[in-house]
Amino acid sequence: MNRDLTGATWPLGGGNTGQHVRDRDWSTTALGASDQWSAPIRTVVELCLQCPTPAMIAIGPELRVLFNDAFLPLLADARHTPAIGEPGSAAIGELWNSIGELVANAANGNPGSSELASIAKVGHPNGETSAIVSCTPVLAIDGRTVEGVFCTVLETPARELEELRDSEAGLRAAVELIGLGRFRSDRRNQNIVWDPRLKAIWGLPPSAPVDFGVFVSGIHPEDRERVQAALGASVDPAGDGVCDIEYRVIGVDGAGPTRWVASRGTTIFENGKVVSFHGAVLDISERKRAEQTNLVLIAELEHRTRNLLAVVSALAEQTLASCERIDDFVVPFRARLATLSRVQGLLSRGETTPVMLGELVSLELRALGAEPDGHRISVAGPEVALPKRSVQILALGLHELATNARKYGALGSHDGQLLVSWRVDAEATRRRLTLEWVESGIDWTRSPAYTNRVGLGRTLIEQSLPFQLDAQTRLDIGPDDVRCVVAMAVD
Amino acid sequence: MHEPDLTGRHIMIIEDEHLVAEAMCRMLRVWGATVVGPAATVDAALTLVRSATRIDGVLLDINLRGVHAFSVADELIERRIPVVFATGYSHPTIPERHKHVGVLQKPFSPDDVARALFPIVAGAPGLHTS
Question: Is the pTM of this model over 0.90?
C-alpha cells in the first residue's frame, strides 16, 4: 500500500497516522473508498487527525478505528500504526477492552458521555492508567443516523496521580497512627463497606458482610435513637451533610464489650440528592474512662471540701463557745485550722501512700515545737497505716492533747515527761491498735482549773472517737499525770 | 427570720462526722426540739429508727462512712417519717424512688436547716413511729 496505489491526497497532514489513512485502500473495506465517505465523517476524520490530544474515530457498523499521532503513546506499540482502520481491538489492541463499551454505547444512539476510566496501557508500571474518555456520536446529514463515534482519551496527568498517591499514603499513615476505622455507603445505606478495624469494633472478622441491621445491632440500645436521628439529619440536603456523634458500641447483638466511639461522617450530595456517605470511627473508650475518672475525682474532692467546711464551721462554734472573750478565739481556732490543713496535706498524697500513725503523732508534736528527743518526749510504736477516715479526727484529738500538754501539762512543766506509744494486736478478724498518751511529772499548781475542765480535747477523745471510729477511749487526769488510751480497729 | 420553734418535736440526726452532728444537735435543742441520735452508721440508724418511740423528722446524711444510706430512707418512708437528705456532693446520685426528697447541701446554716426541716415537720403534727 502506498501513495501510488491509491493516489489519495485526502486527508491532508496528520503526520504518520495521516499518511496511513491516505495510503490505505479503503475500497476493500465495508467503508468503501475514502472519497465516498459522508461529509460529516470526512470532517471529523480531519478534526481527529489535527487534534493535538489523543483522539480516535470509530466508523461504520464494524466500528473501524482511525486515530491520530497523539493517540500512539497510549498504544505504546508501533505495530498498531499499520492496523489503522481495522475494527475495534484489531486496531488498538487491549485498549479496546477499556473503551470499546463506551464507544459502542455512543454508536448505539446514546448521548455523548465523558467518564473517568481505567485503561490498559502497555509499558505503564501498573499495566493501566486513568483517563477521561469522552465519546461523541457523529451524525449523518439527516441528523439521526449515527455514522461513527468521535472519542478523545485524556490521561489523568501522572503528576496528579503521584500527588494523589502521596496524599493517600499520608492519609493512610494518619489513619494507622490514630487507629481510625473507615466506612462508606451509598444513598440507601446499601452497599455498606467497612474496613477491618471498624468491623473489629463491632466484633466482626474482616471478611464479615455488613449491612444497616448489623450496624444498628452493635449500638448500645440507649444510643440507637440518637445515632439514627443524627444520621437522618446528615442526609438532609438542606443541612451541611455532617454527622458528628459519640455513642456506645456493644458489639453485634450485644456480644462484645461496651466501647465508646466518636464517629464523623460526611454525606456527598449531587443536585440535592445523596450520592454517598463516607466517614471514620475512632475508639475513644480510654478517653471516656479518663473523663469519667476525672468527674468522680472532682466530685469526691468537692464532697471532701464541703464536709471539711462543715467541720470547720462546727470547730468555729466549739471554739467560740469555750471563749470568755472574743479575743481568745483567734489563736486556738487558727491552730485547729492548721491541724486540718496538715491533714489535707497528708491525705492528698493519694490512695497508694497511706498515712502512718508515727508520722501523724510526730507531725502534731512538731507543730507545737515539741521535737521527740527520746528522753523528755518519746514516741514509740510499730509502723501502722491508719484507715483514711480516721486521720482527721485522730489528728484533731492529738492536737488538743498536745496543746493542753504544752499549756497546762507535761510539755509546760519543768520536770514533765511525755510518752506516746502504741501496739497492734491481731484479733480474730481484724487488727486492733492501742495508743497510749502518758504525761507525767506535771505540776498542776500552775493551772489548777485544768483538771476539771471539759474542753474540746475531752469531747474529741471521749465522744468523737467512739462515735466516728467505734474506738474505746479513756482520759484520766491524775495528781501529777495525764493518761489517755485509745483503742480502735485499723483494718 | 424569727427564731424557729420546734418545741415538742423529736428530730433525728444521722451524720457520721461527730463535730458536725453535735453542731446540728445544739441547733435543734436551741429551737426546742428533742434530739434522737445522732447515729453514725446505717446499722446504728436503723436500730434507732426501729426502737425510738417517736420521730417527727430526720436529717439524713446519705453517705455514712462511705456507704449509701438509702436503706435508712426506705425504712423511714415505710414508717411515714419525713426525711431531708444532707450531702457534700453537688450532684448526689439519688435513686429514682427518693427523687422527691429535699436535699440540704453541706455546709449548711441554721436558716438552711430551718427552711428544709420546717415544712415537713411543722405540717405533720403528732407523727409517731409506734
Answer: no
